[in-house]
Structures are given as structure tokens and as C-alpha cells.
User: What shape does this take?
Amino acid sequence: MNKGCRYFESETPHFFKIVLSDALQNGRLGIPKKFVRKYGSNLPGLVSLHVASGDVWEVELLRENDNAFLRRGWPDFAKRYAIQQGHFLVFRHEGGSAFRVVIFDKSASEIEYPVVPENGDPKMEEDEGDMSVEAFEDHSDQTRRNQRQELPSASIPSPSSKKKKTNERLNKQAVGGSSDFALFIGTL
Assistant: This one.
């Protein structure tokens, strides 16, 4: 580091891990030493891993000398998200014990996170899936109707009228102001 320079430090620092076979076989995932040296003293013995689906996993943070590992709870987390050798995980420290985790598979794409209903019964999710979507859609339609009533209709142009006006303006400019041609093109 250049002593004369100032540096910005993120309030939510990140680290990443490429999952190697030993992390799966030994049932623990190492945290980079530099991250541990810089932020490890503030980390409790139990951390929470938050994924995009809203699931939260409690995982033990084990310290050995200068090293730190995600241990108890890590094998269950890895199994749940089908983490394999070569997967890429990005951890963002949200503060306290919380980490946001993004999981990328071997294709370098974020995985699709499995979702289990609150009662933990996968069968229940299949049986009620259609009904809950319908109820949500009905509520959304009602909410949209309520919003439309509250907003004056003249203040927000519809997307189609906005598009038509833009097309007319662009066509006039392209043809040199011939409004008949612009209106013809704008109606297509």
C-alpha cells in the first residue's frame, strides 16, 4: 500500500470461495486468512448465511490459530444447495453474524435456489401452489385497480400513447417534417 494514498473500505466486505473437494469431504469451508485477520475478531462463533430465496442457515464458525472455517451446519448447507467441487460462492458480510451468500455453479451462473414452504412439507407446496398464485394474482389485480382510481388518468400517459408520440416525432425528424408520412408510419 502506498502510505500517501487514502482508500475506501466497504461497509459490507466480500470474500469468495471456489469449493474444492476437501471442503466437501472434511465438512468445513475455509475463510480467507486476510478476511479473518481484518474482520475475524468481530465475528461470533455462530454465523447466519442468507440466500436469495430467503432461507437462513446457522453455521458454526470454528477458529484454529490464524484460520477460520464454516463447520457445523456447512455440510447441510452444501447438501441443500447441491454445492459441488468447482462451485463459486460469494459471501458479503452484512454486519454482526450475517452473511449474504450467492452461489454460482460450474457454468458460472447463479443457481436456482430450492424453496420449501414454511411447514417444510414439499407435498403441500405442490398441492397449494396453483391456489396461492391465483390468490396473489387476484390481490395484485385489485391493488392495481385501487392505484388506478387514486391517480388522475391525465397525469400519466399510457405506454402505447407515449410510444406513438415518440414514433411520430422521430419519423417527422427523419422525413424532414412530413406529418402525413409520419402518421402513417406511426400507426403501423
Notes: Helices lie at 21-25, 33-39, 74-80, 122-150, 159-175, 179-186. DSSP finds six helices and seven strands in the chain.
